[in-house]
Amino acid sequence: MRRLLIVLLSLSLAGLSGPVAQAAPSGDRDVIVQLFEWNWNSVARECGQVLGPKGYGAVQVSPPQEHVVLPGSGYPWWQDYQPVSYKLDNTRRGTRGQFVAMVNSCHAAGVKVYADAVINHMTGGSSGGTGSAGSAYSHYDYPGTYQTQDFHHCGRNGNDDIVNYNDRYEVQNCELVDLADLATESDYVRGRIAAYLNDLLSIGVDGFRIDAAKHIPATDIAAITSRLSRPAYVYQEVIYGAGEPITPDEYVGNGDVLEFRYGKDLAKIFNTERLAYLRTFAEPLPSDHAVVFTDNHDTQRGTGVLTFRDNGRYAMANAFMLAWTYGTPKVMSSYEYSSNDEGPPSTSTGQTVDTTCFTNRWRCEHEWRVIANMVGFHNAVRGTAVTEWWDNGNDAIAFGRGDKGYLILNDESTALTGRSYHTDLPAGTYCDVFHGDYTPGHCSGSTYTVDSSGWFRADVAATDGLALHADAKVS
Q1: How far apart, in whole angstroms, are the C-alpha atoms of residue 305 and residue 312?
Q2: What share of the chain is helix, strand, coil (3-state, %, to 5)?
Q3: So what CATH class is 386-472?
Q4: Can you give the pLDDT at residue 191?
Q5: C-alpha 284 chain-centroid distance
Q6: Residues with catalytic annotation?
Q7: Less CB within 10 Å around the terminal CB: N or C of the chain?
Q8: Does 6-381 carry CATH code 3.40.50.300?
Q9: Where is each Glycosyl hydrolase family 13 catalytic domain found (predicted)?
């Protein structure tokens, strides 16, 4: 929805004494891809055809609950972040049956499913209407789910909206852009939210991105997730604001948090500073509690981050994120938009059409060769340290990940030529996954041979890179 926050986790089984929050995705594959606004059938197909084979660990899907329908606003993307009920029967992305089939298809491909969970609020506006599954509603009345006593009525600022982000009470008890703010301290509200999340868990969903977590006290999120029926991975949207009283670190006790500073600082280095500064790149949140990303659906509609429109530089930034040691990476997959509110490619009645990558506004950054193949690099080097760092003092860098991988990035305006690089990779010939796809014993692009002393020679074009890793060894 229209605000950026960071998501917090705190999962414990009802009846158990300790938390069961997972502080990082389990398994050998932890890269998350956000297939923003994709319909369920398309996600199911992508899991089998691309995500699983390329090594993605999980897919973040858009909110699955019944939402408002706003034809007068052109069916904007953010209508999906205004819940009408917790039914999964009919959204712009499909039916409950299609959602279940999607989860099963992704699991068959070895890909986990994380649902974007909107639990801070319901809808905006006082006029009400009918939701995507046919449920009638008004601003503080959602028959069978919530009524006026289940919401905060903060009594400030005339229309109850948040105005002062330096006031903790206001941020967590007033309304975000007129969205009816749930009283998450209420036992009933906590139980109702937990029932929704448990319904998703019963289908097989593996975790949740908690939307607008900054607007929910950390203790309330902990109380809600303590009622989950089984362990789940949760990451929280808590946007850092300089000088604000609510900070991302207070949510770390509940699980992982989306690190919004990462994308802005990475873009600053690529755009106005030097890649050499990346040698010590990290953020204040502990690495094992941070979910990092170059951009997401909110930040790409703002300023100060790299997006798909930055092309080669964007690819390089994602390559660095996937090769570096900090945080759990989340890759963005977007569609083209001419206004910040514009929804995904849709029918005349607002139903999201099937995705065909690189056509009809779908940009599919997660399928770009560099990004998709660097997911394999990330998996291959997991658990190794940064070694053999080199830089030219400006915008060309190279580093290894132990004896498992080696990356070169050149953001200079001219090619890097006549250099040899030293790596801890075992001697052999490797596929450059920046420019070629690896299949056992073969590379569709260039290969490089590491000699018995760990040296190899390479020329790297401007705004380009090179990546070798142990799982793409040709001979």
Answers
A1: 14
A2: 30, 25, 45
A3: mainly beta
A4: 98
A5: 19
A6: 211, 237
A7: C
A8: no
A9: 30-378
